[in-house]
Amino acid sequence: MSVLQTTVILSMLSIARVAGIVCFCFGHCPDNHLNGTCEAPLGAHCFSAVEEVLDPETDLLVPERTYGCLPPDESGLLQCKGHLVPHFFPRSISCCADYDLCNKDLVPLYNPTDTSADKDSSTLDPSVYHVALLVSLTVCLVVFILLVTFAYLRYKQREDRIQRYIAETGGSQHDEFGLPGTSTLSELIDQSSGSGSGLPLLVQRTIAKQIHMGTGGWTQMLLITDYYDLGSLYDFLQNNVLDHEAAIKLALTAIQGISHLHTEIFGTKGKPAIAHRDIKSKNILVKKDGSSVIADFGLAVRYDSESNEVDIAPNTRVGTRRYMAPEVLNESLVTSSFESYKCADMYAFGLVLWEITRRTLTTDKVAQCEDYQLPYFDCVPHDPSFEDMFQVVCLKEVRPDIPARWNTTETLRTMYKVMTECWHQNSSVRLTALRVKKSLSKLEAECLSHPLHHKGAY
Q1: HEC profile for 217-249?
Q2: 278 is catalytic
Q3: Catalytic residue among 31, 73, 105, 278
Q4: How far apart are CA 357 and CA 342, in angstroms?
Q5: Is 209 a residue whose pLDDT tops 90?
Q6: pTM reported for the whole predicted model
Q7: 6 contacts: CB under 8 Å, gap ≥ 6
């Protein structure tokens, strides 16, 4: 080959590299499309990822594959080596940047979960379990006594400092804390109960401010969020009815937020997997464009994949009783398993989807919908106790009523099917956030392309 030919070929390769490459995408496509292509920026890679998930239809562990483009950060070095980090659930990823749609030919593999280990464990001597239980209880008791002692000493120290501050500054400042139109800290906290209505918008900032003022000026960290004048989904649904497009948009953008929280992202701009633990219509805010965002992360837990541990903040709140999953009410939730918290989030999302569907019109020509109600409004009091919810959800296995009109259109029928699979009594067969996201994305695309089919031809 001549020198001239070699120069021409190198020039053509350089031009191709400047323009980036086109990647096949599925599950991570731009604008939330179900599948298609995306263009990777210069220096970025295409990827093909696989993760082991439970198929609710066959009750078997199956591979779930996704494709897409990686960001240009560090040329995808950390992301492409994410499979080298040990994971509690098997997953793997492969990257390429050789030619357009190269990731479509990648087939990353993982080591499937070995179910034979459970069978082997049954051969152990039963006395081993008794000894382990006794040791665990002893350790837990000692740790509990130490924690109670430490908490009491901290509380005593804080109370002493407050009393000294009051004695030094006098009682004249107490009047300014009771300005007209303000509430005491206890009054604000009492507004949150198991009814599902929760605290009003931005009341967390008010509480943080009063703590700062009432404890003598010690430094406090304030979390300030954007203000949404349409309020929460709870407020919005009481005053508005929805057509099919608006209902799907609210539900889809909400599950997109939950899916983002549940997903671990690797790289310099990555994030850990997070479970919300208090999903309800009061904690979902509505934007002016009709989309929704998730709010109030006071109970959220973080999963550390490197240590395979769930980082639970020291918080005595346990969520909103009306939206608690069966395993939370009967205290069977495995607190050391991050998947358990994700399943509880999906149960609560199923109830939120029921609230949205009640306010969705049957068709454009048949303006029929139900009035707004909280889940289980006809089964428990306005402010239900743990026992009330336990009797209804766990013992009787009751779920919110489904009106007959929901079977008259494809949109309402699909949303009804999704919500019932989300609030299943068995947490292990509930749909994942990613699976619901794909289902609602497909429903949105079909509704926009075939509106009469989904709204009904009347």
Answers
A1: CCCCCCCCCCCCCCCEHHHHHHHCCECHHHHHH
A2: yes
A3: 278
A4: 23
A5: no
A6: 0.54
A7: none
